[in-house]
């Protein structure tokens, strides 16, 4: 685990949308669900009300902690059955949370904010980090050894429980996640950034990831290290979207291979590996007709193949994370997921699939994708006068057009091979945001 708000419920749920069709036999699954009602992923009695991002951490199978939007800290000591909320006193958005025991925990977030509790989250104090850069990830190899990374390549370190901090900067890239195993440390960031330390973080070297995609959601097991590969889009003052379809992995911390995972709904935002071979990923989003879904996949073969572990388009709270969700596992079987106000738990390693079908009557089709020629076709399914914008992954607007017909071709001879962002909207409402791959 290593990740603000919309002004209203409606604007939040129209920020980004997805296109997806399902080829799965729903009848067999739905018939099986009553028999195995307590298996697979189950919703917990979350007490969150207006959360969209945040982070989740489980100290044990029973002690689970969430840092949510607006500085709300939520905790459960009975495995998610009941929750209590505490206001931390800080309004910043927070992206990571770690507890080292039942009393002592840390959260990291915007504007250089790291807060600490020594009484199980009842009271929180701010640590003087010496930076105003956003901090996205924490790693605590030992109680007095705290490390953090964030915007503009900052690497923070404290060896006195957070009282004093040293600051390093190796690269001028956003750093999204940091993990340690013994003396080996790995940091990943935007534009394929990987940093490695073999001396417990004293020195860092720049490694070759073999990709220029943004890297995030880093996880280290006994013999492997995994990271999601995709892109991060959006401003943190409003929202930040995570969209990955690949995982990079290494068993020697130097050579990296890429595995295609699939784009989720529409893209993966977090992953967690419980051991060398077994991992999970999660995505969540909402469609133009108001359906909001949570999607979890599982791999048992070192990220080579992925199977559906959970899919639901009718969660208890319709306030889900827009391309943001989080995962944390205690062991091979017990894990927790956070998406907006929804908290899920599995006690059997996510064995069963649960899904509700969704109508695609309002969806906008874009094909072929990947694009191997100059002509990209759109079918808008009776949605007229759709405005279109195409951006590169740096956020530069390249093309602006209007789709006046229900089927229309767009000529893209001036775009080079690469990955682009296609935004479709009417007025101020974003209908869908899609990823376009061009390979000519």
The radius of gyration over CA amounts to 21 Å
Q: What strand line-up does the widest sheet have?
A: 1-28-27-26
CATH topology category name of the largest domain:
Methylamine Dehydrogenase, Chain H
Instruction: Report how far apart the termini are.
Output: 37 Å
DSSP strand content: over 45%
Q: Tell me the number of helical segments per DSSP (H or I, 4 or more residues long).
A: 2
Q: How much is the average pLDDT?
A: 85
Shape category? globular
Uncertain ranges = 1-37, 357-362
CATH architecture of the largest domain: 7 Propeller
CATH level 1 class label of the largest domain: Mainly Beta
**The named CATH superfamily of the largest domain:** YVTN repeat-like/Quinoprotein amine dehydrogenase
Can you tell me about this structure?
With 440 residues, the protein is an all-beta fold. It has two domains: 9-346, YVTN repeat-like/Quinoprotein amine dehydrogenase (Methylamine Dehydrogenase, Chain H, 7 Propeller); 365-438, Immunoglobulin-like, CATH 2.60.40. Helices cover 3% and strands 45% of the residues. It contains two helices and 35 strands. The strands form nine sheets. A four-stranded antiparallel β-sheet has the order 1-28-27-26, with no helix packed on it. The chain is globular, with a radius of gyration of 21 Å. The protein starts with 8 loop residues before the first helix and ends with a strand. Mean pLDDT is 85; it is low at 1-37 and 357-362.
